[in-house]
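Task: complex structure prediction.
Instruction: return structure tokens for all chains below.
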Amino acid sequence: ACGASNESDDSNSGSDGGGDTQELSGELVGAGASSQQAAMEAWQAGFEGEYPGVRFSYDPAGSGAGREQFIAGSTAFAGSDAALDDEELAQAQERCAGGEVFELPNYISPIAVIFNLEGVDELDLSPATIAGIFTGAITSWDDPAIAADNPDATLPGTAITPVHRADDSGTTDNFTDYLFQAAGDVWTSEPDGEWPLPGGEAANQTSGMVEVVGSVDGAIGYADASRAGDLGVANVAVGESFAAPTPEAAAAVVENSPAVEGRGEYDFAIELNRLTESADEYPIVLVSYHLGCITYDDQETADNVAAFMGYVISEDGQAAAAENAGNAEISDALREQAQTAVDAITAG
Amino acid sequence: MSTDTQAAPPAATPQEGPVRVQRKLPRYAPFGLFAGGVAVGAALSALTGFSVISTVVYGVVLGTVAVYAASRAVEGRRKATDRLVTSLVTTAFGIAMVPLVSLVWTVLDNGLARFDGQFFSNSMYRVVGEGGGAYHAVLGTLIITALATAISVPIGLMAAIYLVEYGTGRLKKAITFFVDVMTGIPSIVAGLFAFALFTLLFGNDFRAGVMGAVALSVLMIPVVVRSCEEVLKLVPNELREASYALGVPKWRTVMKVVLPTAVAGLGTGITLAVARVVGETAPLLITVGLITGTNLNPFDGRMATLPVFAYYQLTQPGVNEQAFLDRAWTAALLLIILVMALNVVARLISRFFAPTTGR
Amino acid sequence: MAKRIEVSDLNIYYGNFLAVEGVNVSIEPRSITALIGPSGCGKSTFLRSINRMHEVLPGARVEGKVVMDGQDLYGSDVDPVDVRRQIGMVFQRPNPFPTMSIYDNVIAGNRLNNKRMKRAETDELVERSLRGANLWNEVKDRLDRPGSGLSGGQQQRLCIARAIAVEPDVLLMDEPCSALDPISTLAIEDLMTELKERFTIVIVTHNMQQAARVSEQTGFFNLNGVGQPGRLIEFNPTEKIFSNPDEKATEDYISGRFG
Amino acid sequence: MAKRIEVSDLNIYYGNFLAVEGVNVSIEPRSITALIGPSGCGKSTFLRSINRMHEVLPGARVEGKVVMDGQDLYGSDVDPVDVRRQIGMVFQRPNPFPTMSIYDNVIAGNRLNNKRMKRAETDELVERSLRGANLWNEVKDRLDRPGSGLSGGQQQRLCIARAIAVEPDVLLMDEPCSALDPISTLAIEDLMTELKERFTIVIVTHNMQQAARVSEQTGFFNLNGVGQPGRLIEFNPTEKIFSNPDEKATEDYISGRFG
Amino acid sequence: MTVTKAPTEPPAQQRTIRRPGDRIFAGAARGSGIFILLVLAGVAAFLISEAIPAFTASSEEIPGGEGLGDYVWPLIAGTLLGAVIALLVATPLAVGIALYVTYYAPRRIATALGYVIDLLAAIPSVVYGFWGLAVLAKQLVPFHEWLDDTLGFIPFFAGPASTTGRTMLTVGLVLAVMILPIISAIAREVFGQAPALHREAALALGATRWEMIRMAVLPYGKSGVIAGAMLGLGRALGETMAVAIILSGGAGATLNVISNSSPSTIASNIALRFPEATGLGVNTLIASGLVLFVITLAVNMLARWVVNRRADFSGAN
Ligand SMILES: Nc1ncnc2c1ncn2[C@@H]1O[C@H](COP(=O)(O)OP(=O)(O)OP(=O)(O)O)[C@@H](O)[C@H]1O
Ligand SMILES: Nc1ncnc2c1ncn2[C@@H]1O[C@H](COP(=O)(O)OP(=O)(O)OP(=O)(O)O)[C@@H](O)[C@H]1O
Ligand SMILES: [Mg+2]
Ligand SMILES: [Mg+2]
Ligand SMILES: O=P([O-])([O-])[O-]
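Output:
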């Protein structure tokens, strides 16, 4: 009687094509990265369509919080912009009845270098130039370094306002990781979720970043490519050419990156290849994982997690997410790999 | 300064009247002078590069100075001071209107897009992209706020009563002092505290609306105590004595004489306290999280609330960004309407009880 | 149900300030006792100590005994609320409840104590009390209006009506007529004379004619100097006080000037 | 600097309620005028309309003229603040400023006009005013204490001191002695007699002996019934009023009972 | 009801017996007061126990690698700076508004105007944040430049002026708007209650409206204004989301309120870092919360000391 009009059991369930809704019940609780929130909405909606009996919730509390809650056992799975470190891995295994942990790179999204410069729509930037801009070494848009990357462009003398994230974020972590690996001497700070340099213009969340870059002529920042909107998006030097942050290029770089060494059978954490020279790959990519147990204490949770992860990596699931969040779909190779983990989930 | 302001100079006495009517500015002179000041201010700001803010600032300053100077010259120091304060006080009100209008305009401008039936009847259950609504979040906010109010108002009001009617010595001092300290607890810390408390009591995976209500209560209680205390202090002792002298026990005196006399102020205070917490995001983010469906049971499971809903819609939109932003602003608009409605209810209640003042 | 009140060795303090010292007096039942004396000598303070209203002020306290029909009102087993229920009071400054209508003000003593009464009963009580206080005609058409909209004298009479509506055994009145016109004063005096058939009445007044007119016993308070405590100088039948007082101070005060 | 006040066709309203109707009277300078009448007939209301204190109440307004030495006090070019500066007032209920010391209360009015008075001057002024109000001896040792800690009568005298400290041309007093003992009353009466050499004084009193003692002129207010406006029934020299009034109503009222 | 003169001898009330109703009611009132103290003690205990690891950790382990002191110091500066700006701007404004509503505005619309200001309290802090970011900050850019140009010699306005306006000054102003309704609502209540008796006493002495207010209203309402200001200050010190959204924070301690490198505030820093924080990071954030707690304590002690110096003349009763 008190439900929302779109929640009544009979009206909606299974209406979108799935046909055979399955008999699962109970709860499925996850928490973690907010980066995948938009994709998660799509996954949740699709999953709830197929399994109307399961009460699903995902708390976009942040990757760190997600990992902690998972380890503490208060959630069944976590979303995380970073793979578990060794210490966390040990704790996670303990939480998983002493068994194995899965880490699936299910959300892949290119990070765009966004800019707002009157009269300039196209911009190519090399890693060293980007780093120079963000360290404050390059202060004006007509700097020779930028001109060298863009021989054909007419660049104004506008001052550059570099904008970084004020909050601790996966986006910053990946962006600084890229600069650290690709920019050579120009960038010396260790990669970190918190912006490592003092001072400068800082903005909260991707939305703050987009707002600030959008409001200041001469501003430059970095954000999830799907959120760039009307802002200029720079092409980033890859080898001899410049690549745009397309989903395909992002998926490609993930597929071709090596796995992290010495992890479990179902732990597919990867070491992103930031130094790729392939023109089809875009190196500034954020990968957000789903973390969970291979063995759960109870059957219900195991079934629910398996069903959810199965849906997420399915073509339907990936397509739904891509449509809502603008991220890259995982490749077939990654899907097959992930499927082995999903199949292995049991209770015990 | 002191010598030339001595009393009203008899020189300033015009016509025959016995009341030493000092010369007076004509009725509309202050307005005219003020307008003149604003005009000069506009000209000045045009010289220095025209902008709305500088025009207003220069204008108000010059207008005020013009009125003061003219009044000072014609009517003397006291009258001039009076006019100056009138200008200042009116300006203060005007200044406050600027952000208010701007804020309300911003919220209305952005929030009316989705102010439709669907928004009130639908939740976000299985909604991707466009559509959906905040039905679940509205109910969540109402339930959690009601719960927080139910916790905070009795405790806060009783504590205020203690402070005003019973308190003595150290305990009173301690409570007054620490209630002030409590107002400084950051909302996010309140959330962390409630989270830790419930985790301690009910284990790791316990999540419920009541956690949020407790977090909000930590923020709300000091506001209730402080504002109620101030209002109760204003009830004249005469009335208490009149009641005691009729053989009415103290507690009945408090309940039936003191509280009704102060009810209008209490209403304001409690409304203020509710308004203070109803829009809180951080503590709810930590404690009750967010779900897409409707949960009406505050003792089990996560709940959606309007501020958290708005926050995520604003900060984590999908590709179809506008749909998310629209939902966020409409949620904000709804919050404002909610508090307004509450305000009206409080006024009605107090109108019902309030003393009709006479001499 | 009138009561005899015996006060012995009463000292009354505001914090550390001794305001009234060593009062010994016996107040007869079914009589009117008047208290007179210069301003600030402690008449109000003494009056308030009889029904334990004094102690509601922070730091205020008394030493000594106030015995009503054998029971020490300051005894450790006595509830001040019960004392005040039996000893009513009218204050120097009228203090009707601003949240209540005139009607509700009159029956406040009953209402506030949650006494259930039938509507007809309360109507009757309100009319009787207001008539007693000589206010009925002026307010009978606006009983539902707030009590604070009345003139000063009307307010005072409303407070008198409120006090007699609870039918106490003893009625303390602190200058009840100081804000009243002669007609109302007369009515109140008649009322007192009527009430004393059943009640014990103690009245503080600056109007010595009033004291002479209505009271059987008169007490004269005085103080030796500023900062000194007030004392009950003389307590005697009113006739004697006004014709042939024992004390020189009393005579000086009374002959100084009449009301 | 005493002033003659002429009131013509004055109607005084509280919102839509006509409280006082059609007052015509001329108040002589250098004299004391007493206003008497039953409670609620509008004496206070009329008094407050003379110095434009009436209009501070929401909805309160007047019609008609109050002319002081040829100038209409309700004229459009007259500032009520100036009116009140010259027509001082003492209220029925004492109202010292609770946040000020006794000393500061006395010179509160003077401080307004003259920010920087020499300490010696103010000391002198405070003493003179307090002596005038017969309060000096009682409070001289605690001038720096809050005015609210005094007894009712002391507070009233403090207010009188405050009003005379600004030396107004006209002094309005609303039952100034109703809370005072005979000695203080006498002192205030003496003070009035002294002040009338220079000032015009209007006093509301319920004490007809007081009216007879101190006033030259007396006005009798009355009202025909409840809800009716009060009227000035008779205005005559005091002697005449008390011996041979023109109106039957006056005679009835006065002979009804004295003080 | 003031506690100025505590009786030196045992008060007479000791002998007073209380009726059951009174005992229960008084007990409930007292219990509520004590309960509040317990809650606060709970919060303090929580903060302390969670903060201890951060205090005992070696300085390299603290985020930033320079130790807890270096981590928290800029945050303290930022917190105080923002709150002080807010209080300095809001208190006089709120008093002005309250006076306007109670004694200056046309009577018929006065109450309505009061509610209008209350609307400011109804606006959620997230909305303040986005409004500050998208509307106010931009409008204030020229003001920042003007301050830099004309008052640049004062350390507070040393510049360089921010090009986005997302500065401590803007945050202070937004906080001022947020606390305005709190202070003005309480001030309005107490000003409105100033006894007519005393207001009339002032007017009858020939006081102008302002002088009447100074003599009879302000002294009476002083404690209320202070109470409101303390509530407002608490809110300003603890405001989380609005500051997190508006401020371009994260820099070291500075007095400069108009540049784009401001220190963050304690509360907003917690909000920005907490979701991604793990282990000692969490402890450090909570330690900073404890510091804010102590700051609030100190500020209140100071305020109380100032207020109590003339408590004898409190207007109430
Ligand atoms: N609340 C109080 N705190 C301290 N002292 C007080 C208080 N009330 C009265 N006093 C002092 O106690 C003494 C007696 O005061 P009280 O009011 O009893 O006088 P009173 O005889 O009733 O005078 P009046 O005729 O003027 O009413 C005075 O010196 C007065 O200043
Ligand atoms: N604030 C007010 N609002 C409405 N009516 C009022 C107000 N004050 C007084 N009145 C009414 O105006 C009439 C005259 O009152 P006023 O106070 O002038 O009487 P008074 O002659 O001074 O009486 P008293 O001798 O009792 O003081 C009364 O009917 C009273 O009820
Ligand atoms: Mg007395
Ligand atoms: Mg009167
Ligand atoms: O996805 P974020 O962690 O950068 O907000």
